[in-house]
């Protein structure tokens, strides 16, 4: 009997998909059940944002409808800019969009510029100042540095509301009210950022700094060329906290702002909500809220990996 050559025998076809056993299926279901509270928590966070988005694209008549609809039946961009709106109200059912409601130069974009400029200046300035102070405290043997550091940490226990009146008096005496300086200068010193960076620098070997000094590098050059690059993950993590806090800052700008030109986005939206009431005006207000939240979401998505890395590497070690 003839035997077929080995190369002519067809290989046994194996299924590319493995059959899921009962145990693995049960473990997968149990895993989903254990994560169910987190799914519900995520739903409570997503639901308001979803309502914000659908409200933006509803016309005024649909906004006043009862019960409300969960999907826009007649989507429109009129809440941003309504081309059919007229100051005399010739076309009923048409209201001003968010870009038509402010009588300032560049309209709503003026407030976007104010918020972006102020937030960027505070973030960059705070990180530079705190990184320099952290380098001095963590890597320089100066007299009383521990006491200074403890005093800075103790300032974190003082409610920030207690500084409103003293800071306002200082800004008024300096003539800085209704100016960018009143926004930026009082917000540059941040104790938590300094504490975080000091803890991060504790993990950097002192021999690295000493080697740079032996090579003739000055303290400014060491800080700029060695310390700042090593602090990059921590700086990125802290930048997220600073950006979110300053972008949403409302009470201090409300106190120092005296004109619409210098208002940031939270103050501008609060004034808009006080000027226009009723459900049919909520579309334009929600449009402003959507535009206000978009930059922070994009910023977090870009720096998310640096945020997690900075938290993991620092470990808040003493």
Beta strand count = 0
Instruction: Using the alpha-carbon principal axes, give the shape.
Output: globular
Indicate the proportion of strand residues.
Answer: under 5%
Task: Kindly report the average pLDDT value.
Answer: 85
Number of helices: 14
The level of helicity is 55-70%
Runs with pLDDT <50, length 5+? none
Kindly provide the radius of gyration, computed on alpha-carbon positions and rounded to a whole number of angstroms. Answer: 28 Å
User: Distance between the terminal alpha carbons, to the nearest Å?
Assistant: 82 Å
Instruction: Write the H/E string, N to C.
Output: HHHHHHHHHHHHHH
- What is the SS-derived class? mainly alpha
Secondary-structure topology with pairs:
Layout: H1 22-34, H2 36-56, H3 60-63, H4 108-139, H5 145-154, H6 164-174, H7 180-184, H8 191-201, H9 206-214, H10 219-230, H11 232-247, H12 251-256, H13 265-275, H14 282-314
Helix pairs in contact: 2-14, 4-8, 4-11, 11-14, 13-14
Q: What this model shows, in words?
A:
The protein is mostly helical. It is built from 14 helices and no strands. The chain has helices at about 20-35, 35-55, 60-65, 110-140, 145-155, 165-175, 180-185, 190-200, 205-215, 220-230, 230-245, 250-255, 265-275, 280-315. α2 packs antiparallel against α14, α4 (about 110-140) packs across α8 and α11 runs antiparallel to α14 (about 280-315). The chain is globular and about 75 Å long. The chain starts with about 20 loop residues before the first helix and ends with a helix. The model has no long low-confidence stretch (mean pLDDT about 85).
């Amino acid at each position: 009997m003839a035997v077929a050559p080995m190369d002519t025998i067809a290989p046994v076809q194996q299924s590319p998909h493995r059959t899921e056993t009962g145990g693995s299926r049960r473990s997968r279901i149990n895993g989903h059940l254990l994560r169910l509270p987190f799914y519900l928590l995520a739903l409570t966070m997503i639901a308001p944002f979803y309502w914000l988005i659908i409200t933006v694209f509803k016309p005024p008549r649909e906004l006043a409808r009862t019960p409300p609809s969960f999907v826009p039946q007649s989507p429109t961009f009129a809440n941003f800019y309504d081309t059919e709106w007229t100051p005399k109200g010739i076309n009923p059912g048409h209201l001003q969009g968010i870009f038509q409601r402010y009588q300032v130069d560049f309209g709503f974009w003026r407030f976007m510029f104010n918020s972006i400029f102020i937030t960027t200046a505070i973030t960059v300035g705070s990180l530079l100042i705190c990184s320099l102070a952290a380098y001095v405290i963590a890597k320089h043997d100066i007299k009383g540095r521990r006491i200074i550091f403890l005093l800075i940490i103790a300032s974190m226990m003082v409610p920030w509301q207690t500084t409103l009146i003293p800071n306002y008096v200082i800004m008024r005496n300096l003539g800085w009210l209704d100016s960018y300086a009143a926004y930026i200068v009082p917000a540059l010193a941040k104790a938590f950022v300094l504490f975080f960076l000091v803890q991060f620098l504790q993990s950097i070997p002192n021999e690295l700094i000493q080697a740079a000094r032996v090579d003739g590098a000055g303290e400014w050059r060491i800080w700029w060329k060695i310390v700042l690059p090593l602090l990059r993950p921590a700086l990125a993590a802290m930048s997220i906290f600073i950006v979110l806090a300053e972008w949403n800052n409302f009470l201090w700008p409300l106190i120092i702002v005296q004109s619409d030109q210098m208002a940031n986005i939270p103050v501008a939206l609060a004034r808009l909500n006080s000027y226009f009431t009723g459900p049919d005006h909520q579309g334009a207000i929600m449009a402003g809220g959507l535009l206000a939240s978009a930059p922070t979401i994009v910023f977090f998505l870009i720096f998310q990996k640096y945020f997690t890395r900075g938290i993991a590497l620092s470990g808040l070690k003493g």
